[in-house]
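so ive been stuck on this for like two days lol. basically i have the seq below and the ligand is adenosine-5'-triphosphate, smiles is in there too. i just want the complex predicted, nothing fancy, no docking runs or whatever. if the output looks off dont worry ill sanity check it later, just need somthing to start from for the group meeting slides
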Amino acid sequence: MTELVIDVRDLTKSFGDRVVVDHFDLQVPRGAIYGFLGPNGSGKTTTIRMVCGLLKPESGEGTVLGFDVLTESPKIKERVGYMTQKFSLYEDLSIRENLEFISRLYGLDHRAERVDKALEDLGLSERQQQLAGKLSGGWKQRLALAACMIHEPEVLLLDEPTAGVDPKARRDFWDAIRRYSAQGVTTLVSTHYMDEAVQCDSIAYIAYGKKLLDAPVSEIPKKIGLACWRIAGRPLLPAQEMLEGAPGVGLVARFGAEIHACGEDPVALEQSVRRVKAAQPHVEIEKIEAGFEEIFIYLMAGSHDTFQ
Ligand SMILES: Nc1ncnc2c1ncn2[C@@H]1O[C@H](COP(=O)(O)OP(=O)(O)OP(=O)(O)O)[C@@H](O)[C@H]1O
C-alpha cells in the first residue's frame, strides 16, 4: 500500500464567524509533489499551517508522518520544513552564517556538515561568504530553501515560494525540489504560476475554503471537461469583446495571435462562438481540446466554483 505522508480529513477552521477552511481532505503519498492552487484568500495558507502543526483545526482529524495533527503537533513541526510567503533571512549575515545560525537555533548536531550539504544541494557553496542582504531574489529563495532543509525534514511545505522570482530562478528552484522528491521528501506547494503547477504530480484546487478538485496533473483536463474553441484572424479585438461575458464563455484568453474561448457548457459556448463568426466573418473558428494551460487560467480566474 502507498504510504501517505499527509493524510488529513475534514479539516475546518474559522476566523470569527467566517469559515476559511471547510471540511478539507488531503492525501499525499511519500515523495509526491502536490500543487495547491486557488484564488487569493481561498484558504491555502491556513490549510498549510494546519498541516504543519502551527494552527490547530477546530474540527477534523488526520496525521502527518504518522503523527496526529490534533495532539502531536510538536513532533510534526520538528519534521517539516515550512517556507512562508515572507520568509526572513539575516541580511547582514553571509549565506553560510545564516545557515549556521539556523542550525544552532534548531540545536542540530554535525552543524558544519549539514551546512556544507545544504550549500552543495542548492548550488550555494561558491557564494557562501556573500551577505544575504546583497543577494538577488532568486538566490535569496534558494537560501530560504536551504534553511528549510537544514534539519533534513521529510515534508516540505512551500507557500508561494517563488513569488516575484524570474523564470530561470524558478526553474532552478524546481530542479532542487525534484531532487529532494527523488530522495523521498514529500512537498506541498501553493502557487499562482502555471510553470510551477505543471511541475507537480497532482493538484488540489481550493476555493472559498472547499476543495473542488484533486487529481494528477495529466488527468485534470479530462476531469474538468472544459470545452474550448480557437479563434484567429485579424482584427481579433472585436471578436474578443463579443466573446467576453457571452453565454457559455467562462474564459477568453489570448494565446499569441489567437484567442481561446472556453467554458463548461459546450452547447452555449458553441452558439456564442458561431455568433461571433457570423458577425465577424473574417475570423476562423475551430474546436480544440483544452490543455492544462487553458484549465490553469480558467481555475485561477476564480470565477467558476461549481464543477465537481
Ligand atoms: N489569523 C487570521 N485572522 C483572521 N482572518 C484570517 C487569519 N488568517 C487568514 N485569515 C483570512 O482567511 C482567509 C484565507 O486566508 P489564507 O491566507 O489561508 O488564503 P490563501 O489562499 O493562502 O490566500 P493567498 O493566496 O492570498 O495567500 C482570508 O480571507 C484571510 O484574510
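Residues 227-289 form a domain with the Alpha-Beta Plaits fold (CATH 3.30.70.250). The chain has a mean pLDDT of 91.
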